[in-house]
Amino acid sequence: MSIKSIAAKLLAKKVHKKVQAWASKPVETQQKVLEGLIGKAKFTVFGNDHDFANIKTFQDFAARVPIRDYEELRPYVDQVVKGEENILWKGKPIYFAKTSGTTSGAKYIPLTKESMPFHIQAARNAILSYIHETGKADFVDGKMIFLQGSPILEEKNGIKLGRLSGIVAHFVPKYLQKNRMPSWETNCIEDWETKVDAIVEETFNENMTVISGIPSWVQMYFEKLQQKGGKPVGDIFKNFNLFIYGGVNYEPYRAKFENLIGRKVDSIELFPASEGFFAYQDSQKEKGMLLLLNSGIFYEFVKADEFFTEKPRRYTIGEVELGINYVLIISTNAGLWAYNIGDTVQFTCLKPYRVIVSGRIKHYISAFGEHVIGKEVESALQEAMQGTTVRVNEFTVAPQITPSEGLPYHEWFIEFENEPDNLEDFALRIDQAMRQQNTYYDDLIVGNVLRTLVITKVAQNGFQDYMKSIGKLGGQNKLPRLANDRKIADFFSRK
Question: Do strands 159-162 and 154-156 pair parallel, antiparallel, or not at all (unpaired)?
């Protein structure tokens, strides 16, 4: 065992004790976070506008600070982008994480000197939790790759901006810099396909032990490795045993990945976003990710089926229940207040608080009142694949409201790696799984409002072509699992 792996185990033990300290006192921890946030932002423009000086309780906060999304918070953000100080948080941000919005064009999410360290710390602690639980630490001596956006940053009114993953690249600890790949020059390549080709060449003969990224883009990297080497990724990288991912559910990709790798490897799920690092998988044995209650973020939760009512109830951490679909609302030490990030979560455990990401509040299908969410379509597909040789590269779902004949239906666009022998039977398996999960959907099928779902096959690399067509190939970009319209569906219907 190397000195580095011994040190990693000792640090893992120390961090585990710290995590247990706040995780065992969730309500008190969150109360302190809220008090700290309010106190530090009391004299900002936002704090003055919302009477922070007289906020003593969560009820006071909820009464004064309405839930907002980016577009609603934008008048304040625009002042920050102009370079003005003390608007949402004291002073100025040190970075803007630039993301693509739907209605608002580019979004500028502030990162402050208080918030930035938590992005780095959470990713580190996720790996340390894995080391503490499993005792495995030898991987720290090998090479690690993090597929991410370019670290080249722009500047706007004296504040640097770029993709979050590119910003994070500037904060790689010194003890990891010799192990980290790809090189800075390769990481700066903007074109995603060119970048992946360069990463393949650079890593092919290295001792890769940890690989991290959004599954759909890591899949492209693995496929290119396999094409170059003519053998599974696990044979190319014999010591590769840990995959770290975030952004999307890994389960629809798992069978495909195990085939590409040639064996099973351990995995760690992360829940990062430009707005904050919210959770990470702290156990290989338990379902869900540990919600980070001591990271400068105060959480609120609104039941998804009540979210669009006039005054939905806002729940705090001590009031949540298992299995309910909640919209995640955050207030942060980067100056986001009662901010709707758009993600929905469900709690899998309350001691400690663990969550799964169940979807997006804007990504759902309810064209007929069925309220289908991302978690349900992913679970239904996974159940239908069990016991079969079917493998799926990517998929998305849309409603077909006006078919040329017959009843309306849900249309599943699926890019298969291994196709089912009988497509209609496979569609029926998915449909049955959907009906078991979602009673609204079942009622619509029984009542002859909808007919059994229809699968439309997508050609190989079809979803990559789609993402390229909208300028979102690679990086942190993710394909929506489902939509209440046919914008994505129309792309494939035209082909």
Answer: antiparallel
pLDDT digits (tens, 9 = 90+) for 241-271: 999 998 777 877 788 899 999 999 999 999 9
Judge contact between 40 and 90, C-beta under 8 A: yes
Closest CA to 246 of 210, 222, 214, 283: 214
CA atoms within 13 A on the CB side of 157: 12
CA distance to 438, 455, 484, per residue, from 369 (Å): 11, 21, 11
- Tokens found for residue 146: 């993090």
Cα 472 to chain centroid, rounded: 16
Structure confidence at residue 115 (pLDDT): 96
What's the whole-number mean pLDDT along residues 147-163? 87
Rg (CA), the chain: 23
The Cα angle at residue 431 between residues 426 and 435, in degrees rounded to 5: 150
pLDDT digits (tens, 9 = 90+) for 357-396: 888 787 778 778 787 888 889 899 999 999 999 999 999 9
| Stated pTM of the model | 0.82
What residues are paired with 109 via a beta bridge?
Answer: 97
pLDDT tens figures, 267-319:
999 999 999 999 999 999 999 999 999 999 999 999 988 888 888 999 999 99
Total number of residues shown for the chain: 495
> Residue 318 has which token pair?
């001590």
| C-beta separation of 1 from 138 below 8 A | yes
Cα dihedral 218, 96, 112, 334, rounded to 10, equals: -90
Alpha-carbon span 282 to 304, nearest angstrom:
26
